[in-house]
């Protein structure tokens, strides 16, 4: 399989009678892409939550449908999305923790190899937990609390992070923690979020915070509310992906 990375050679390209079956697109800019008169059997899009863009299929805008259906299946999305006050953000985090507690209880019954298994090259459960450690370190430690070096080395940044960004944040690209190690680190981060939210007041929610989240991009600015909401969304959406993939692994094992 040929891989095209960090390229713009396909921008505004036209493909006619081309065989793209089985192609994979990750961390790509597909804004404005048009597909017409083509076979799209088993076409799948993941990571689109109906929140920040639009998708139109045969002149039908399915954006609202996708968002509503995801909200129906995962009502915690609505709780997080609508939280505005400090009390509402605390309540949303309580719901996030309740769901994660149930997930942690479930994975305790699974063998270690399953927790490191990927589905369709998405992150494994352990990698997902490592990413949430990174998310808390970034949005709470670095942004809200202003810590200069909050990152645990096992933290896993987004897949488009380059090697320079890893090194600049003190992350270890060779880290291979066990499930127990990753969950223990994440439990500590959850406690930090809980403690911070316990003392959070409405009058600071609109205060700006500035920090370097991705070294090549320089300083970024977000309000305290945006930082907290981002942590909440990260935990809700990545749990959804993790639970989905664990179910797929279980189904595959049953079929075999």
Overview of this protein structure:
The chain has 256 residues and is mainly alpha-helical. The chain folds into two domains: 1-73, no CATH class; 83-255, dinb family like domain (Four Helix Bundle (Hemerythrin (Met), subunit A), Up-down Bundle), CATH 1.20.120. Helix content is 48%, strand content 7%. It has helices at 63-73, 76-82, 86-107, 112-115, 125-144, 163-168, 179-198, 224-255; strands spanning 56-57, 60-61, 208-214, 218-223. Strands 1-2 form a two-stranded antiparallel sheet. Strands 3-4 form a two-stranded antiparallel ribbon. The longest helix has 32 residues, at 224-255. The chain is globular and about 60 Å long. The two termini are 27 Å apart.
State the end-to-end distance: 27 Å
Rg of Cα set = 20 Å
Structural class: mainly alpha
- Approximately how much helix is present in the residues? 40-55%
Kindly estimate the percentage of residues that lie in beta strands according to DSSP. Answer: 5-15%
What is the count of β-strands? 4
Give the SSE order as H and E letters. EEHHHHHHHEEH
What oligomeric state is this? single chain
CATH fold-level label of the largest domain: Four Helix Bundle (Hemerythrin (Met), subunit A)
What is the spatial order of strands in the main beta sheet?
1-2
| Broad CATH class of the largest domain | Mainly Alpha
- Poorly predicted residue ranges: none
Overall, the morphology is globular
């Amino acid at each position: 399989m040929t891989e095209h990375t960090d390229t713009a050679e396909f921008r505004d390209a036209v493909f006619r009678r081309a065989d793209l079956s089985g192609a994979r697109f990750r961390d790509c800019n597909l804004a404005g892409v048009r597909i017409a008169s083509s076979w799209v059997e088993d076409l799948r899009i993941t990571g689109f939550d109906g929140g920040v863009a639009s998708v139109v299929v045969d002149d039908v805008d399915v954006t609202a449908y996708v968002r509503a259906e995801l909200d129906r299946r995962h009502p915690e999305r609505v709780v997080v999305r609508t939280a505005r006050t400090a009390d509402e953000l605390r309540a949303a985090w309580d719901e996030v923790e309740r769901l994660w507690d149930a997930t942690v209880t479930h994975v305790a019954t699974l063998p270690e190899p399953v927790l490191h298994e990927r589905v369709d090259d998405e992150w494994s459960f352990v990698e997902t937990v490592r990413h949430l450690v990174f998310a808390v370190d970034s949005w709470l430690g670095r942004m809200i609390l202003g810590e200069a070096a909050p990152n645990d080395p096992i933290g896993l940044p987004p897949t488009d992070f380059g090697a320079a960004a890893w090194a600049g944040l003190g992350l270890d690209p060779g880290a291979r923690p066990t499930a127990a190690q990753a969950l223990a680190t994440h439990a500590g981060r959850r406690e930090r979020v809980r403690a911070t939210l316990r003392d959070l007041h409405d009058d600071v929610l609109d205060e700006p915070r500035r920090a370097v989240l991705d070294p090549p991009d320089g300083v970024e600015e977000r309000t305290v509310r945006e930082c907290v909401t981002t942590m909440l969304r990260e935990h809700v959406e990545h749990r959804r992906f993790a639970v989905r993939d664990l179910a797929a692994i279980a189904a595959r094992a049953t079929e075999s």
